[in-house]
Each structure stands twice: as C-alpha cells, then as structure tokens.
Design brief:
125 residues, 4-stranded antiparallel sheet, single chain, elongated
Length: 125
C-alpha cells in the first residue's frame, strides 16, 4: 500500500510523488493531477520481476482532512517482465465537491489530502 500526501493548499495543482515497493514483483509511483470538483490520480507501474504479471488492477482511496471523499479503479492488464504500464483514474464525488467549495469559501481551516493506492495482480509461475 502506498500513501501520497501533499499538505499545503498552495500545491493543489502541482505534482507530488511517493515511491513504495509492493512485495517483489512490482513497483509503482503515484502523482497528483488537477484538483477542483474532481481529482485525477496517476500511477506508473513497473514489473521488476522476471515473470509476467497479468490481470493487474489499480485501486485508489482518497481522503481529505481524514474524511473519505471517494475512490476509483483502473484495469491495467498484462505487464511483461521489466516493462512499464501507466494507470490513471479520476475521483468524482459530491463529498469532494462540497469540501472543495467549503475550502474556497473559507469554512475549512486546512486542506490535508491523502491517497492510498493498491495494485492487485496475478502472475505466471
């Protein structure tokens, strides 16, 4: 599981990234897209093993100020050994939009967001 955190509201449109290794077969790196009523989360998934990874899936859960505002899923498919696939998904929800409007109107004192991502996969032995 990986966590991507940007704590400053001034960095809302910049790209931040955290790299975390998951087991032995894959490595992925997350980055933010644009914030407003929706948030785009992008990932670069690398197969670091010598086996073919197939049926891989990318899941993201997004929280703002400790409150879950949505999630999304993207299907990656097969990743050959040493190759890279890119995944992206967009979180759109009424809760995210209402919290963004509260932030713009000054009702929220902070905008602390966190994305937890997981890549599920199977591989040939």
């Amino acid at each position: 599981m990986s966590t991507l955190v940007i704590a400053s509201p001034a960095q809302a449109d910049t790209v931040g990234a955290v790299e975390v290794s998951s087991r032995q077969l894959i490595r992925y790196k997350l980055s933010w897209g644009r914030w407003k009523e929706s948030c785009r989360i992008k990932a670069r998934v690398t197969n670091i093993s010598r086996t073919t990874v197939f049926s891989s899936r990318f899941n993201v859960s997004l929280t703002v100020n400790g409150r879950k505002v949505g999630g999304c899923t993207d299907y990656l498919g097969t990743i050959r050994p040493g190759r890279v696939k890119y995944a992206s998904c967009t979180v759109r929800s009424g809760r995210l939009a209402s919290m963004w409007y509260d932030w713009e109107s000054g009702d929220l004192s902070r905008w602390y967001r966190r994305a937890k991502a997981t890549v599920y996969y199977r591989y040939y032995r």
